[in-house]
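Dear colleague,

Following up on Tuesday's group meeting, I ran the structure prediction for the two-component complex that the binding team flagged. I've pasted the input sequences exactly as they went in, so you can double-check that nothing got truncated or mislabelled along the way. The structure tokens for the whole assembly follow below. Feel free to forward this to whoever is handling the docking comparison.

Inputs:
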Amino acid sequence: MSNFIEMIMRDLRNSIAVLLVFVCTLVFTSTMVSAEAPRGTITISKEAAGRIAIALDRTSAKGGRESELARSVDGTIRSGLDFTGLFNLLQAPANMRTVQGGALNFSALNSVGAEIYTGGTMTRQSGKVLLDMEVYDALSGKQLMKKVYSGAEGQVRPMGLRFCADLVELLTGKKSLLFDSRIVYVSNRNSISVCDFDGQNVEHLTSARTISMNPVISPDGKYLAWTDYSSGKPDLYIRNLATKATASVGKPGVSIAPAWRNGSDEVATTLSFEGDQEIYLVKPNGTISRRLTSSRGIDVSPTFSPDGSKMAFVSQRSGPPQIFIQDLQGGQARRLTFSGSYNTQPSWSPAGDKIVYSSVQKNGEINIFTINADGTGLLQLTRGEKYNESPAWSPDGSMIVFMSNRQGGKRLFVMNSDGTNQRPLLQKEGDQQQPSWSKGR
Amino acid sequence: MKHKFSGVAFAAMVLLAGCSSKSTISPADQAGAGSGSGAGAGSGAGVSAGADAVAGPVLSDIFYDFDSSALSPEAQEQLKQNAAWLKKNTAQSVTIEGHCDERGTDEYNIALGERRANSAKEYLTNLGVGSSKLTVVSYGEERPFDPAHNEEAWSKNRRSHFVTK
């Protein structure tokens, strides 16, 4: 993606940040700025401050084609920023740009209640599209960012998303991993599909036309692992996405529920060729690296801490399924979940602090919970909405994607990591399930 | 349970089996096998079972409690009948499919379904059925017998199903 984007203003980042901290402290002392912000960045705490009010101006353009592209990028930017749940998006007033000499009329923003103003221009130059974006503090009129994004006409969406990522980083102090991330999932139970973070650009990765399950893309984006029944039983397949070369474990019994171990190119999966369902580490060529569990009964659904040193997984060792944590260097597994009699599908947060999982409850619902990795801080995220399964974190940890049948069929939903803002991801017919969220390449 | 192999119930089972390339005795028709209630299984069906229908295999599903692969007394009784048939038909290979209800989660249920099918296979081999004739595959909750979302459906879906090849 970087090959078509020109980055400028890098040096101005620190001074902009310091300036914004100053301005915000002056005006919004109680709401906007975290005092613990790392040096050179600003942090606007969502919990404390609510949403950041941004006035989005229409991208100006001369010429029919330019105007078309400008409307397209406006749509991308608006929906991209809206998806984060961080912002209150406002229409910029029509008289923002009426001042002589091209200056912006910031007094027009007073009635809108915006904290930030963004606007830009779209031009074409020797076959390329140039998107010149500017960001201002709406209160002081100070420019916070100015950046030109360029690319082919077909790349207007990634250009707009790049701006979204830069804006989120500017306003939150954290690099955004959202806008180039992708979600892989099972379509209609029989093929693997992938879409952008917001449900756009659906592509089909497999067409096995047999039961397919649990797709996961490796941390480096090179491999896709999944289970399907093309051999007549549930077998794990590992595909190099560039070369399409595909390996399988090829052992008797099941090979299911893959999870990539962070910091390695190995995938953990449950195999039963030794009689009991145990978790093993497997290399991308399908050979077994080592066995990780040895307890009577099912061990399944591994997930790894960000550094790959610990594994959370589901085990029957204490009776009905519960989540355990084990150090890969050895030592006893520690039981994590005690509330509820059927807890499965753990997913370890990118920050390492939380594990999200699904719980089959006595009232017949399946609900999603988060719990701290030390067993404290249990939080129920879904309730009263039938089955909610297969939770998985966004790469930045701000959101969770999951399957819910609350509207009838099995569909993908996203929510903020605290359970707020639950909404459908895709508007597609058929079943979609077992999502996992992977970083951009 | 002897009465199940006589009269109307038996005719119904044979007819149903003869109608399909697979052994498809339905859980509903075989309620007697799972619950032990016996009488009334298949009632109203099979009134016209012909003599040519007896060629079909007679292997009935066995059923499980939620999140369990333990064999109930009824399941063991059915497995004894299945074993008797398999020992008489030694050329027949069988795939034992392990299935689960829709509750619980997909990947855990694949593992659970495998344990169910394995428990049935182990019981059959202990009764003298050659293990080389028996293949196990788990479908978890992917292929419910009854797609409804209630206990009646779930109890039929938690099963080991026998498919002759």
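Residues 46-172 of chain A form a domain with the Rossmann fold fold (CATH 3.40.50.10070).

Cheers,
M.
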